[in-house]
Amino acid sequence: MERCPHPNCFADDNTTCTLGHIKLESCPEWRGISQAAAIPPSDSSEMLLPWSGLAMGEHDLAFISGRVKPITIGIVGPESAGKTTILGAFYLLLGRGGLTSDEASFSSSYTLAGWEAVATCLRWKPGQSPHFPPHTPSRAARAPGMLHLGFRRQDGSLRDVVFADAPGEWFQKWAINEQAADAEGARWIARHADVTLLIADRQALAGPKMGTARNNFQLLAQRAVAESHGRRLALVWTKGDVEVAPAMEAQIKSALATKASSVPEFTVSVYPRGELDPAEGFRELFNWILSTKRAAVNLPMTEASGHDPLFRFGRR
Amino acid sequence: MTAQHTILLVGESNVGKTHYGAQFLKRLMVKACSLKMSGAPTNLEAFSTALSCLTEGKATDHTPASTYVESVWPIADDLGRVAELVWPDYGGEQVRNLVTQRRIPAAWRERVLVATDWVLLIRLHSLRSEDDLFSRPLESFAGAEGVEESAVYEPSDQARTIELLQMLLYLAQFHLDRPLNKPRLTILLSCWDELGTTDLPANLLASRLPMLWSFVRSNWMAPTVMGLSALERALSKTDTDQDYAIRGPEEFGYVVLSDGTQSPDITLPVQRLMASEL
After folding, report:
1. Lower CB count within 10 Å: N or C terminus of chain A?
2. Does B59 map to a domain?
């Protein structure tokens, strides 16, 4: 199928027209090409849905942002630090009822297929034990793949959360050069994330290249702190079962200490640590994320002469 | 004026839609339930095979995938409320195709738009229970390398059911700003006899499919969960069940109400829907 000339329309990719035309031939944008190419749509009696279920791109976000801007979670860290594993673990816990409560019940997700894709490696399958999710490919994308979850809070209101799953290379380039040409996706996260999870990979920090890992983390932390502009930031230790030298831990913490307020710390691991249930660390982190509130907007108080709020500012 | 209850009966293949329809109809015919037929049904073709199989104590064949037949039954309850019940029968593959192919045939869109009540049939026994690293922790974790990464994977049954409900909600043009009052949702856990449990239906659903239960409770004001055993026992397609042949199929089958009480009147789920205001 031809691609629609509208920049935000992906009608060729099994979703509905972005302008809302159920019949593609009635869309002016689409008619432009279909006249030239004269290809009738496969079956006009079938209706498509506005979401594909896969991870969302920048333009797809409009579909869930219609209600209120979702809370965006940026997961920032070097490659193979366990960013995608965190997401997979969240989804599995949600599927087991481990993340929902009376205060926040699961209400929707328009990226279920995307969630299933990140979680599928962490499941036991016949003849195959769980393994880490494969490397998240870095394409020349301008925005990361986004996974959506909607929750309903006790007062009945909805809260949408979007997790940005970006490849580690983006952040490494971004840490070195803020304006790096191929770090557009990292800049997108820095600009839009309401919550930033800064990942410290304990395995790398205890491994043979621990010096490089420490240096990379310090650079990345510096960048992330500078760009956070007071938005929420947390330090997440991944692979929590690995022992790290106390001096190294202190170095990592001090990389974030420049920030005025203290940065909360979380430790997650997919292995049970002693008596500790692996789910506990993920649950703690998730509850902290879900407690995020966007700073309230203060509407200016004005002396209004009429009752109609429309004329509050206009009338003299 | 006769209220029309159009039931959107949703269930994948092999959950027992046809058996439930046939048993429901049989109960109406012999007047052994709280609902009564107040006229003659329009078209019983869809259930005639199933009815004759059950009379002999045999299970019916799978409904062909492309079939979709609606049968209109005029019914009345004890208080004299009358309604027309539109009962569909179809091959369950259609439901699975909605989710996997993500293309909604125009006919399905209309069905969703006119439906007043949704009844979702789930057969817990046939759902896969998947182990993951939280239910079965690992001692050592294989790295991603060396593992043949297969591009194909099957979404979990739970995710598929949630996606189905989300799609139906979208088609019916409901928005979820507030939990929904209408359409009323009844979840029937079919083939209850296979489960061998004494749990309340809602608790069982909450423990087996917690994410689905959270989704349903978050988006509906008052979802109802009941257990249903349309046949009471497994029947074979070839061998006759003597008890069935002697006593008749209307003597078999039961529902487990939300409070755990068991009743032989399998029309109760629909009677409850009628009793509440349209």
Report:
1. C
2. yes
Residues 157-196 of A with CB under 8 A from B: 158
| In the block, residue with structure tokens 């209120």 | A68
8 A C-beta contact, residue B229 and residue B193: yes
Contact across the interface for B155 and A116, Cβ inside 8 Å: yes
Helix pair B210-219, B201-208: axis angle to 10 deg: 120
Q: Is residue B145 in some structural domain?
A: no
Task: Write down how long chain B is.
Answer: 278
Which candidate in A152, A239, A273, A282 is best for mutational testing of the B interface (most B CBs within 10 A)? A152
* Residues in A touching B170 (Cβ below 8 Å): 49-50
Write out pLDDT tens, residues B25-60.
Answer: 888 888 878 888 888 887 888 888 888 888 888 888
Give the pairing type, strands A145-153 and A158-165: antiparallel
How far off is chain B from A73, nearest CA to CA, in Å?
A: 21
Q: CA–CA separation, A38 vs A3, rounded Å? A: 13
Tell the residue number behind the tokens 């190294």, with chain if given: A248
Subunit contact A128:B147, Cβ cutoff 8 A: yes
Return the residue in B98, B100, B102, B165 with the most chain A beta carbons within 10 A, the one to mutate for interface testing. B102
**How many structural domains does chain B have?**
1
pTM to 2 decimal places: 0.84
**CB < 8 Å to B178, chain A:** 156
User: DSSP letter at A25?
Assistant: G
Nearest CB partner across the interface for A133, out of B144, B211, B218: B144
DSSP string, A227-285: HHTT-EEEEEEESTTS---HHHHHHHHHHHTTSSSPPPEEE--SS-BTTB-HHHHHHHH
Distance CA B168, CA B171 (A): 5
How many Cα neighbours within 13 Å face the side chain of A289?
32
User: Are A270 and B138 within 8 A, CB to CB?
Assistant: yes
DSSP H or E segment with residue A101: none
Residue A214 contacts residue A205 (beta carbons within 8 Å): yes
Which residues does chain B have within 8 Å of residue A120's beta carbon, measured at their own beta carbons? Answer: 153
- Residue A170: which of A76, A83, A58, A87 has the closest Cα? A76
Strand partners, A280: none
CATH number, domain containing residue B265 = 3.40.50.300
Sheet holding A145-153, edge to edge: A104-108, A145-153, A158-165, A71-76, A195-201, A232-238, A265-267
**B136 within some domain:** no
With left for phi above 0 and alpha for psi between -120 and 50, is residue B100 left, alpha or beta? alpha
| Domain spanning A61-290: CATH superfamily | P-loop containing nucleotide triphosphate hydrolases (3.40.50.300)
Q: Contact, A186 vs A177, CB < 8 A?
A: no
Cα separation, A191 vs A144, in Å, equals 12
Averages of pLDDT over each 10 residues, chain A, 316 residues: 69 69 71 54 68 79 78 89 89 88 87 87 73 65 79 88 87 87 86 90 90 91 85 89 88 76 84 80 90 69 64 58
